[in-house]
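Bumping with the actual sequence this time:
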Amino acid sequence: MIDLDGSFGEGGGQILRTSLSLSLLTGQPFHLRNVRARRSKPGLRPQHLMSVQAAATIGQAEARGASLGSSDLVFEPGEVSPGKYHFAIGTAGATSLVLHTVYLPLACRTSEPSEITLTGGTHVNQSPCFHFLEETWRRYLDLLGLHISLRMRRPGFYPRGGGIVEAHIQPCPGLHGLRLESCGQVTRITGVSAVAGLPEQIAERQARRAMNRLRQHRLENDIQLEGWDDGPGTVLTLVLNTTPVPTLFFGLGARGKPAERVADEAVDQAFAYIARAPHAVDAHSADQLVLPLSFAEGPSTFRVAEVTSHLLTNIAVIRRFVDRDITCDGQEGDAGTVRIDAATP
C-alpha cells in the first residue's frame, strides 16, 4: 500500500487523479490522506468524487472513503476493462479532469477500444476546456502513439453545467518517448469567440478586442464567431501555430464580467507564453505529458515554458509508483527542461 499525503506540493486534486491513474496502470493500491488539503474547500468535491468512482468502475476497484467531503481515501485496483461508460458529475465540475483520470489505463491496459460519455462542465475555471483537449492535449497524445477522438455534444458552463463530451479511446500497445527542444516561432493566431444562450454582440466584442491587441503586436490573426445552444456562457480561444502541436489559451465569461476582459485574459496568457522565447511546451501541457511519458519505452526530453507547482507535484507522485528517473531543471516560475530516462529492462 503506497501512502500519500495530499497536502504536499500543490495540494490539490491533481495528486488524487494521478494516483488513481497510476494505481490502475501499475496494480498498486494507495492510501491518500489529507485529500486536497491546500484548497479552500478541502476533501472530495463532486468532480473529484466522480474521478474516484470512474476509476473504480473501469478498474473493478475497491474504494474506501469515496464520499463527498472525504479527506481520506483507500483505493485497491482490479483489472481494467474496456467498454462504454457514462460518468455524470452532476454539477459544472470539469469533464476534462475526469477524462484525465481514466484515459491512460483504458488505452494502455486493455486491447479493445473504449467509449466514454462525460456530463458536467466543458468550459470552467481552473481546468482545461474542451477546445484545449481537442487542439493541444489530444495532438500531443497522437505524437506518443495514443489516439483519442473527441466530440462536444453540448457545452457546459459554470454554474449550470450539463455539458456533454464523448471520447473514443483506442488501445495503445506501446507509447513513444518525446524529444522536443523548441515549438518554433508563433506567426499566426486563430481562434473562436463563442456565446451560448447570450447575445451575439458579446462574441463580437470579445473578438474585436482580441484582434485589435494582436494586430498591435503585428501578429496575423483570424477569430471566428460562433453561437451555441444551451449555456449561458461565453469563451474566447486563441490557437498559436506552434509546432509540432498548436498551443491553445482561453478566457471565460462570467456574470458581470465585460467581454473585453474575457478577451484580455486569453491574450495576456498568449503574450506571456510568446515572451518566453524560445517557445516550448506550455505549462498546462507539461504536467499532463509527464504521466504518459513515464510509461513510454524510450527516454524523453522536453523544454517547458514554465516550471509549475503542478508539474513538480506530478513528478513526485509518479516517482512513488514508477521506478523511473524523472527530473526537471529550472526554478518554479522559470523555463526548464523535463528529462525521463529510458525504462529499466
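The C-alpha cells above came from a reply further down the thread. The first strand starts at residue 2 and ends at 5.
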